[in-house]
Amino acid sequence: MDNLISVATENFLKTVYTLGNSIGKNTRPGTVARELGITNAAATDMARKLSAKNLLDYTKYRELKLTSEGEKMALGVIRKHRLWETFLHRVFGLSMHEIHREAEQLEHFTSDFLTERLSLFLGHPTTDPHGDPIPDASGVFNNGNTEVLPLSQATEGEKYTVSRLQGSDKEYFDFCQQNDLKVNSVIRIINRYPNNRMTEVEVKKRKLLLHEDLTSTITVSKMPSSLEFHNRKRQNP
Amino acid sequence: MDNLISVATENFLKTVYTLGNSIGKNTRPGTVARELGITNAAATDMARKLSAKNLLDYTKYRELKLTSEGEKMALGVIRKHRLWETFLHRVFGLSMHEIHREAEQLEHFTSDFLTERLSLFLGHPTTDPHGDPIPDASGVFNNGNTEVLPLSQATEGEKYTVSRLQGSDKEYFDFCQQNDLKVNSVIRIINRYPNNRMTEVEVKKRKLLLHEDLTSTITVSKMPSSLEFHNRKRQNP
DNA sequence: TTTAAAATTTAAGCTAACTTAAATTATATT
DNA sequence: AATATAATTTAAGTTAGCTTAAATTTTAAA
Ligand SMILES: [Mn+2]
Ligand SMILES: [Mn+2]
Ligand SMILES: [Mn+2]
Ligand SMILES: [Mn+2]
Fold it and tell me: I need a labelling partner for A129 at 20 to 30 A (CA). Which of A185, A205, B155, B205 fits?
């Protein structure tokens, strides 16, 4: 009865968690397999094994569902991943596209002890450089629960702040950087062209015409920073 | 033809390197096995495999000898290990006995890219907190070549500085800390009692009577810090 | 409702990294 | 030099985590 958890298992659980919490995606073995770069057969096999370990529920041909134990593990890995990303960006100055690659490895070899030192050192951050929320040590997200939505669904005329950038490659982050599309940037929706799946926005006095391929990767919230500012003023008159 | 290097391989090569550079130790499979906590059979098996990959030379019943490629790999792992130890101690404040455990894992999952960022951040240190030398990116040690020797072989009456503490557990480092036996501490040999394997030393005005079990783990050099100071003064008049 | 396409599962097999047990070789002692 | 002891190697077997290929089931289309 080997109770040690492997890299393959951690990545599998993490992927099931992430797919399960993404809109328009499913957690069937094939989807997990594609995500991890393994075959469907391997994913099915792993699903049976993890089911036997009570880390997920598996019924043939159905979607995979994490047990609470499995979810706790997934959140543990995600916590380590995002803390490392935050660290690598803030302390070593790695760029947005570099941090993921390194964190993808480090997340599996960081003890809980070290993880808490890391979190402490960083001042217990609640989001990573991509704007992804960081669960606390017990797996709870403590992010102000402002409503978020993809920029592709934002309303014409409204103002938002960028809360997450969900792309992954260098080109994506270079483009965002170049055009001031950063976490916490303020963005105003000028025009929407639903038929052409385009959105015209204003960022730092500049107008951009963005395709849904991009706007669907950018999460925004309805001016949470101004709300925050408002709250602070009230508490601290 | 899988050219990727595994954790097992890295640990094996590192162990062969370390044993080969320790006095009174050998690099036969059994010794490596004991060090790694695996069976002799597993070590022999690994020796054959690594020999096939040209990472070491293996002749039945003889000691293992790293090839230059194998040694380069071992030094790469050692570099990562010691840089992480330095980092964990200096930046996260982990104690002497905690850093090794964490570094033992991290050393295998740190890209060369990240390693150089780590080294840069630390100011390219040449020794870790235990006083162990850190090879540079091409596997070369750049430590002033002052002669070192175990405290157990130091000369009565002479003064030395501590250059390495080679123990590993909490008790060991707690004892050293408590008695000012730290890297760079100045130490004077008052008396040697070879028959009883004891050495009486003076550290910070305090006298200590130490058994060879301890003195053989402490490496000293003949006042390298004063020599260094001397050299600096000459160069910078 | 039947059928074709797509996805999933099962079956069989591989490799790395171990294990235990038996056989072999080296080494140390008389 | 013979022999007992210790170390090493070989042999056989296990497990995790994959693979490819075949069989099965689901789903979508006709
Ligand atoms: Mn990973
Ligand atoms: Mn992230
Ligand atoms: Mn290691
Ligand atoms: Mn060290």
Answer: A205
Interchain proximity A117–B94, CB inside 8 Å: yes
Residue A230: pLDDT band (50, 70, 90) is very low
pLDDT tens sequence across A137-192: 999 999 887 889 999 999 999 999 999 999 999 999 999 999 999 999 999 999 99
- pTM score of the predicted model: 0.91
Q: Cα-Cα-Cα-Cα dihedral of B170, B174, B176, B178, to 10°?
A: 180
Domain boundary among A88, A110, A143: A143
Contact across the interface for B111 and A101, Cβ inside 8 Å = yes
Residue A232, in any domain of the structure: no
Nucleotides of C under 7 A from a protein CB: 7-12, 15-22, 25-27
Write out the residue range of the structural domain in which residue A46 sits.
Answer: 3-66
Q: Is residue A100 in some structural domain?
A: yes
Are residues B174 and B187 part of one domain?
yes
